[in-house]
User: What shape does this take?
Amino acid sequence: MPLFTKNGKTDDKDIDYVAFDNWDQTEPAAVDVPIDVLPENIVPLIANIQSIKIEFPTFSDGRGFTLARSIRDNGYTGNLRASGHLITEQFSQAIDCGFDEIQIDEQLAARQAANDWSYVERRTYRDKLRSSNPSGKFFPVPDGVWSETVTAVQHFSDNLFRFRITRPDGFRFRSGEFAMIGLPNAENPVFRAYSIASPAWDEELEFYSIKVPNGPLTQFLQRIKPGDQVLIKRKATGTLVNDVLLPGSRLWMLSTGTGIAPFASLIRDPETYEKFENLYLVHTARTHDELQCGYDITEKTRIDPLVGEHAAKQMIHYASTTRETSKQMGRITTLIENGKIFSDLGVSGLSPETDRIMICGSIQMIKDLKDICIKNGFTEGSHREAGTFAVERAFAG
Amino acid sequence: MYQYDDFDSAYVAERVNTFRHQVEKRLDGRLTEEEFKPLRLQNGLYLQLHAYMLRVAIPYGSLNSQQMRALAHIAERWDRGYGHFTTRQNIQFNWVKLVETPDILKALSDVGMHAIQTSGNCIRNVTADHFSGAASDEIADPRPVAEFLRQWSTDHPEFLYLPRKFKIAVTGSSNDRAVTKAHDIGLRIIKNKSDEIGYEVIVGGGLGRTPVVGTVIREFLPQVHLLNYMEAILRVYNAEGRRDNKYKARIKILVRELGIERFRDKVESEFERLNDSADKLESINEKTERERISEFFEPPQFDTDTDLFEFEAARRNNPFFREWVKTNVHNHKQSEHAIVTISLKATGAIPGDASSDQMRAIADLAETYGYDDIRVSHEQNIILPHVHKRNLPSVYAELRKHKLQTANVGLISDIIACPGLDYCALATARSIPIAQKISTHFSDSAYAKAIGEMKIKISGCINSCAHHHVAHIGILGLEKGGVESYQITLGGDHRENLRLGDRAGPGFSADEIVPAIERLIDAYLGLRLDPQETFLTAYQRVGMAPFKAALYTEQGPKQALAS
Amino acid sequence: MTKQSFSKIITANLLHTGDVVYLDQESNWVHQIEKALVVSSEEQIDSLVGAAQQSEVIDPYAIDVSTENPEISAIGNREKIRQQGPSVIAI
Assistant: This one.
């Protein structure tokens, strides 16, 4: 029977659904849930369900929508299918309630054109009530600021996401710099420094952000969607640029959390590979989820048409968690001080002769690493005078 | 008042396009009538006896003059030059064509209006006190929360296919003019001991076939929790409300079958779960949005001129004006201002009907004298909520020119009536001719004034659109053996202590109804303690017996005695 | 009275306009009740109403009529009002 997802018509999947009443509830299974099952009777069982099908006896029976949202609200992440009599007009609403796919019978499919079963990308009133700028009210863009359009948003975890915006004509920056970002939601909008995670040659701008529940900016920024406007001040600046460091053979990029952003830019800039023979991108975060952006970006960089070849040969990605148990754990300072990182990588320890260091992360992490650098004879570089290590002070996160 | 922002405008415009597309699909057969019906109903389009009827939402009864003119234009261009203001702060156009409906919706969207969810088993137009923002007894203006709820409930993906329709009303005064206890959810803005604003939440009220007075489910709900609490109620209702019998599908039946305690437990636990869920409407944003909406409802810059010489002079010199002020003008929170109720109940008129010319005249008055603010009331009258008393003589003179000066608000001829069998496909008897007969019979204003406050409400079927259950004298039109028969209820009260009327006895034929009312009035005038004792208080004092005796005297109708 | 035992016609509203119409002898939907086809059996009603579901009308159903006038006229308040329009004069 025809099956439709957000991306259009798809082949029927061979899923063996067991009827809810016949399911013993202990064996993980794909379950066929009749529409009259109350949410309170299915929600406690969702951990044991791989796939759910909800049967709509008629399109006007809205119980399926409440069931779907209850299941999703309570953390069900498996496949969720609506099956039976639904009409194309309900497709977007069904998806918005948490369904992944809708299956209808041949007869209904024959009458309702396949391309009518399409998800309408639209802003709903729910989006509006939750959006970064619920007013939709137009606030004039302040002087010295561009208003740009969000092109993509990806959430890595409950407190980390990345987003891309269009790049203003005439916006120049060096890979590794940061810009001031805000939202058009007030007369005097709040701006915060965000390292640009995309390289200087990219047509769009990319940023990583944390989500702070009551953060003056991030409480709203975390709700942006493609099509929204984001403000960016015209001047980019920052110290984590190639020019701040003297030439060397190894570049160590040490980061915690979203502090990886300037390095995500630098590892995609060909100049970095010309200046240094080996790049070590070190990334630590509390949980594995928060490291995902690092894995994504290094993987992407290794197949990048412009720098992929260099990256594959010259760049090493080293990630560790500080809280969640994983195979590689520990804070950067500890890993450097006990030499574990060097033995893991099979390389020699830090030396001002050959190594250059860039640091971006939490205030404590910056302070601790800076102490280690100075103790080992490194000198801090600046725009006036290049050195052997560099720190981004504007970063706070 | 609220102005559509970019989002609202884009949303409503898109809905018009979608409906246009759906109409095309219906016309070329891609949608069956069964499938199309809920879609047209979600856009306010009904099929009535003679034609399609379009019901347009007037959210919480609030209009500006531009919108009123647009309604006048629609009535003229696509209907027969008039519209019908309903008992739920909507306007109905009785003679529209399916193929022209998208154009009408477009004309509405151009002025920030729509017909979305004025029908169907979804959350309907949210209604509110028609004196909001002007009443001297107001705790807080209910319009911001009503607008907030409008946005929340519009196109809510989970709640478009409920077991049955769902009506919400909000009041901001302790004197309830929004009949909150007769709604699926009623909200009363209240203050707690710490002087914080919140809501008393009432659930499961409703009239219709099974009239029920709503029950308090939450005595004090802090403002920030409103949406999550509403979602919790709706979620329990959507999952558990009966779908096997449409007459038992309203939330009042679910509340009754579960009992308020069990229903409350379910709602509260759902509410807790929602508050922990990732999908909740975050309170921080609720606050932002509510505050933003509230800014739209800031009071206008009131003219503080205290010179009322002209007003006082007109009141002294013109007895008609004096009468009109007495009945149709109410106290405003600004003492030099007044609330003007424009009666749509002229002698022999159809309650709630207004012509395009009248609508335009009202729009002009609102623009010139009324800070561009107009309300429609569930009692089927129009209100100019803010008029400086100095301007009342001019307003009155202008109303006279358009036959809108009837001085009968709150009196016996200020009758609420549904369209009844003259228009409505559900009706079992006519309501309008009964209203016309009564208003003509009691057109003597001295007599009407002597009778004093009186609420007559006439429904043409058991669905009770005219709220006859809560009328002082309620009239319900039924069909008995092919003949219209009218049942009388007495002693209903639509205010904060909502009370359902008591059925007097067998019904009356259409011709017998005016004499029956006449006998009730005579009985009342004979037994009241003094002219200040209203019909309702007299009824509460003496009960049904003397009125029943008057209704069913031996001189009374044979049919009534026989049946 | 005997003649009245089974006099029904099929009525509906036009899909495009909502107008009240009646099914005539040529299976056309017409505005004049006098031209309606008087049907004689339940089977015929079922088949005509069934067929009407697929046509340019909505909500087709059968109504009782009087044929004594001698013209066809509706029986009952509802159908009389549907045929003749509201019994009250609008503004």
